[in-house]
């Protein structure tokens, strides 16, 4: 019996190939030259990617703006990232593009990331080292191309917001070889003269290659070493450079830099006028209060009869005198009481008081030392006996041990 063979439809084989292809290949980078380049008005871009032997159909949905920014057109060497798919209606395999860049830009990205990490580790992006932008600078230094749209936009905004602002322009290349060094020379010049309060480094947007001078290390270090605050206004909002990270302030466009660096003149004048009114009102209130105090003082009875001031002090002197006399009197009384107490104590200890009770004091004739023991005298000694009423002269006839 012959084997029954499956007969495939075109759809079945196409879907099978699609499944095998899409499951086998993960998203990948491919390089080649663009051909048949078409940017559809829908915003999608269709082109072929080719080398010397083969070509590959590509579709980049909503990629018109990105290819325009990178200046990608017919015959350009590019690197694309995407997923291999099968377009079933035609049975063609193609690359659905997710990213696209001019060839060699991958190396620039690597250089950018390496320098960014190195300067970050050195602290050049730290917020604490960034300088404060002056609110209203006396002079603005601008470093940019003398013929670029960035300068025209910047000056237009400045003239509209504050037409009398003093601006100094240092013309420098902002693209291509040597541009970074010219910008560094501008920063050095403004710092040497020290006649500007803020420096604006600016240019319009562009591709990574166009903006590469603002990713140079020598420019980054010059910005970090500047004693004058620097504003980076490079490219559009989606573009970031090393200059943006190390600058004291980053704004997305030259116009934004102009709007930020100076206030609107009318707004400042309104603020000043408001402050002037508040100051005038504060002065008026203060003067009114001082006048009221002076008016009150002029009607004070002391000013009407100055003698009252003298009388008040005279009365105070009298009161103090009375208090002093009272204190002296009280102190004398206290001291007298203390002395009287001491006298009483002395009287109690006075031996003559004992004599009044019938006692006597015996003294050897011709001596003032009292006799306190019979051993102090001998038979025949002459003594003096002091009594309460006088003295007696005695002679010792005999001594014994009777108590």
Tell me the layout of helices and strands.
Layout: H1 10-24, E1 28-39, E2 45-50, E3 55-60, H2 64-69, E4 77-87, E5 92-102, H3 105-122, E6 139-144, H4 149-162, E7 166-171, H5 179-193, E8 198-203, H6 217-225, E9 230-234, H7 242-246, E10 249-250, H8 254-261, H9 265-298, H10 301-304, H11 307-349, H12 352-355, E11 361-364, E12 382-386, E13 391-395
Parallel strand pairs: 3-5, 6-7, 6-8, 8-9, 9-10
Antiparallel strand pairs: 1-2, 1-4, 2-3, 4-5, 11-12, 12-13
Structural commentary:
- The protein has 403 residues and is α/β, with parallel strands linked by helices.
- It contains twelve helices and 13 strands.
- Strands 1-2-3-5-4 form a five-stranded mixed beta barrel. A five-stranded parallel β-sheet has the order 7-6-8-9-10, sandwiched between helices. A three-stranded antiparallel β-sheet has the order 11-12-13, with no helix packed on it.
- β4 (77-87) and β5 (92-102) form a beta hairpin.
- α4 runs parallel beside α8 and α5 packs parallel to α6.
- The longest helix is centred in the C-terminal third of the chain and has 43 residues, at 307-349.
- It starts with 9 loop residues before the first helix and ends in an 8-residue tail after the last strand.
> What is the tally of beta strands?
13
In N-to-C order, the SSE pattern is HEEEHEEHEHEHEHEHEHHHHHEEE
Query: So what's the overall shape?
Result: elongated
Strand order of the largest sheet: 1-2-3-5-4
Q: How many DSSP helices?
A: 12
Low-confidence stretches: none
Radius of gyration: 57 Å
| Major sheet description | 5 strands, mixed, barrel
CATH architecture of the largest domain: 3-Layer(aba) Sandwich
pLDDT average, as an integer? 86
Beta content: 15-25%
Indicate how many domains the architecture comprises: 4
| Helix content bin | 40-55%
């Amino acid at each position: 019996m012959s084997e029954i063979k499956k007969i495939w439809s075109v759809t079945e084989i196409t879907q099978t190939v699609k499944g095998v292809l899409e499951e086998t290949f993960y998203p990948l980078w491919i390089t080649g030259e663009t051909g048949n380049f078409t940017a559809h008005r829908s915003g999608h871009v269709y082109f072929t990617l080719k080398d010397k032997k083969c070509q590959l159909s590509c579709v980049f949905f909503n990629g018109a703006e990105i290819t325009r920014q990178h200046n990608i057109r017919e015959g350009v060497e590019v690197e694309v990232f995407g997923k291999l798919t099968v377009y079933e209606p035609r049975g063609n395999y193609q690359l659905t593009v997710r990213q696209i860049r001019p060839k060699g830009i991958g190396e620039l990205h690597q250089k950018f990331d390496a320098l960014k990490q190195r300067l970050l580790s050195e602290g050049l992006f730290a917020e604490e080292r960034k300088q404060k932008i002056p609110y209203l600078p006396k002079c603005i230094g601008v470093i940019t191309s003398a013929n670029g749209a960035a300068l025209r936009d910047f000056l237009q905004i400045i003239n509209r917001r504050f037409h009398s602002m003093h601006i100094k322009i240092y013309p420098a290349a902002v693209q291509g070889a040597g541009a970074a060094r010219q910008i560094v020379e501008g920063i050095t010049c403004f710092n040497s003269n020290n006649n500007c309060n803020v420096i604006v480094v600016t240019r319009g947007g562009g591709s990574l290659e166009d903006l590469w001078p603002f990713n140079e290390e020598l420019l980054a270090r010059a910005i970090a070493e500047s004693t004058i605050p620097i504003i980076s206004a490079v490219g559009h909002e989606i573009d970031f450079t090393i200059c943006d990270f190390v600058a004291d302030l980053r704004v997305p466009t030259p116009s934004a830099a102009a709007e930020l660096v100076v206030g609107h003149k009318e707004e400042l004048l309104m603020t000043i006028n408001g402050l002037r009114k508040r100051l005038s009102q504060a002065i008026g209130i203060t003067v009114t209060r001082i006048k009221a105090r002076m008016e009150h003082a002029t009607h004070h009875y002391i000013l009407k009869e100055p003698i009252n001031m003298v009388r008040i002090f005279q009365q105070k002197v009298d009161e103090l005198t009375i208090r002093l006399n009272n204190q002296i009197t009280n102190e004398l009384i206290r001291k007298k009481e203390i002395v009287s107490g001491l006298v009483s104590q002395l009287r109690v200890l006075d031996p003559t008081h004992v004599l009044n009770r019938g006692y006597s004091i015996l003294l050897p004739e011709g001596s003032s030392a009292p006799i306190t023991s019979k051993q102090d005298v001998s038979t025949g000694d002459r003594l003096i006996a002091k009594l309460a009423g006088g003295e007696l002269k005695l002679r010792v006839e005999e001594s014994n041990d009777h108590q």
